[in-house]
Structures are given as structure tokens and as C-alpha cells.
Amino acid sequence: MASTTQMPDIPPTMRAWVRPRRGPARSSLELVTGLPTPAKPTGSSPDVLIRVSHVSLQFNTEWLMKILPNLPLTGPWIPEIELSGEVVAAGEGAPVEVRNPGTHVVAFQSIPGAVLMGHGVLTEYVRVPGRQVARTDAAIDMASASGINGAGSTALKMIRTAGVREGHTVLVNGASGSVGSVLVQLCKLRGAKVVGVASSGNEAMVRGLGVDEFIDYHKHDPLPAYLAHQYGDRPFDFVLDCVGTQALFVNSPAYLKTEGAVVNIGILEGIGLTLRNVLFNMFLPTCLGGVPRRYIMFSTPPARDDAIYLVRLIEDGHVRIPVDSVFDMEDAVSAYERIATKRARGKVVVKVSSG
User: Fold this and answer.
1) In what order do the strands lie in the sheet with 193-198?
2) What is the pLDDT of residues 304-316, one digit of tens each?
């Protein structure tokens, strides 16, 4: 049986970012120092206690901090869902490969637990079920690894949902972002031709990820008109939109095959307008003005099996999780402000552990 002995020097309290009130990060987040450290799992518990190394921030977290109320009896509302770190202790019910103290892992909190209950991971120690933890090689950079569950799982679900395969030509809108940068690599691994859309300042990065063609959306504005002119006679099999540009779908018959689809995970135009667009895009009949192309949007909760698969790809050198910037724990508010610029090249990460 694998050892379940905890690592030394586990303090009784820990630091964590909490949101005591609704509002933007700068006015709502507070760094507290006396939060009780989660208890060590014992016996047949399936849980794993993790010393957090890095936390990857989500684009929509600040929006959630502005609108979600604090529920009674749930404790302090702590943001974020994905992390990298080291195992401190684990119960005998946890997967054997993540039981040993010191094992490098990536993990995630469930969406209901993190969003509704506020049991997020922007803390020094986290206790989560073993089904939400995956082992990583110690050689993998911990900042990069912290983005595997969010960006990696979302990109993987997009190509699986679309059915991207060898011989397809796909457009990736937002190819320099946290999801788009992984999406480009996964599409290339499947043998697809990839056209990436980003700003000119990100061209070198996006080309380095392997795109076959690059489009600067500032230079070619409006983008749908350019796509219709440039690709009307060689339409895409799929448009994978990581930004959430409604015009890209509305005009898609001009550059997307009849049997193709737009797969969107972006909410750049705002939650309210995006929800309205999703309803029209998915259910409005063509006889009433609906677009004669498929539109797909879905939730993307992380999954352990996806993380294990992505870790293997990273370990083998086939995929990397680009990191835009790493902020110290004390500077987490600045990290949220970096995301808000919408110019991040890959993941924005907070370094939690001082070790």
C-alpha cells in the first residue's frame, strides 16, 4: 500500500484570496492569512491534500465576482478552479498514483463547488477528491501545468465535439489565447490544416504553435468579409471560435461548408448578449432568418481523464500550455487586471507557493 504520511511543516492556517463582497477584483478581493488549513485525509477517504504551487486564472472569474452573492453557511468565497502542486497527504481511497507525498499533480475544483459555494483554489492548501487529481512528471513546469485542466480540457472537447480529423481545414479565432493556443496544437496533431486569427503582435507566437496560415484581425476588418473573399472557394470544415464573435457565425455560409459547424466557447460580447445569440443561433429556423449552419456551444467542466491524456502529450513534447505571465500571490489583483486587457498570450498564472 502506498504511503499516506503527510509532508512536514503543514501550518494550521494558510493564506487565501477571498471575496467578502461583490465587485471587480481590485475592490472585492482580500488576501487573508488566518484561514484554517484543510484537514489531512485519513483512512479510506478518497481525498487528496495538495500544497498549491500555481493557479491559472479564468477569464470569466471577475464577472462572477461582480454578480454572484455570497451564500450563507458556505464560508469565505474563494475564486478559481485549477492548480498545480504537490501532494501533502491522501486517503487510501484516492488513486494510487496520487497518494505519495511530494508527487507533482494538477487538480481542479468542481464548477458547483468553486462557483456557487466559493470553494476555490486560490489558497496555499487545497483538499479535493482524488477523481479531480492527475499526476504529472516533476520535469513539467508548474506554471504551465496549472493550465492543463481548464485550457487543455476545453480545447480537447472542442475538437472532439467538432470531429476534427486529418484532411480538415479549420479556422481558430483567438489563436493566441489560453484555449486557442492549445487548440491550434491539438488540431495539428490530428492532421488538420489550421488558419489562426489573432493580432499582429501575436503572429510570431501563433506561427510558432504550427498554424498553416495567419490572419491579423486588425488588418482584415471586418473579418467575415475578408474570410468570404479569401476562403469562399475553399471553405472551412469548422470554425472554432474562442472569442465569441457573433458576426463570425452570422456570415459563416460564405466561408463554411454546408455540413460544417461553428463551435464557440467565447463570451467576449458579454454574458447577456451571448445567451441571446446562442438561443437564436441554435433554435431559429432558417425560414425565419436563421443561419443555415450548425452552431455548437457547451459547458466545459474539467475531467481527470482529459488531464491524464494531456499530461501525456506534454510529457512527450507534443503539446505545451503557453503562459503569458506569472504573478506572485500578493499580486493576484494585478493578474486579474492583465486578463481584463484581453491581450494575454496564453495563461495568466498566480504563483502561490513561495518554495
Assistant:
1) 213-216, 193-198, 169-173, 236-241, 256-264, 294-296
2) 999 999 999 999 9
Distance between CA atoms of 280 and 294, rounded to whole angstroms? 12
Prediction pTM value: 0.91
> Domain 150-296 - what CATH class?
alpha beta
Q: Give alpha helix (H) positions in the chain.
A: 25-28, 61-67, 111, 142-145, 153-162, 178-189, 203-209, 223-231, 246-250, 271-283, 304-315, 332-340
Q: Please spell the DSSP secondary structure of 289-313, one letter per residue.
A: T--SSEEE-------HHHHHHHHHH
Mean pLDDT, residues 119-128 taken together = 96
Measure the CA–CA gap between 326 and 103, rounded to whole angstroms: 22
Cα–chain center distance at 274? 19
Helix axis angle, 153-162 to 304-315, nearest 10°: 100
CA angle 96, 115, 26 (to 5 degrees): 115
Domain layout of the chain by residue ranges: 13-147+321-351, 150-296
Give CATH superfamily name and number for 13-147+321-351.
Medium-chain alcohol dehydrogenases, catalytic domain (3.90.180.10)
Residue 111 pLDDT class (50, 70, 90 cuts): confident
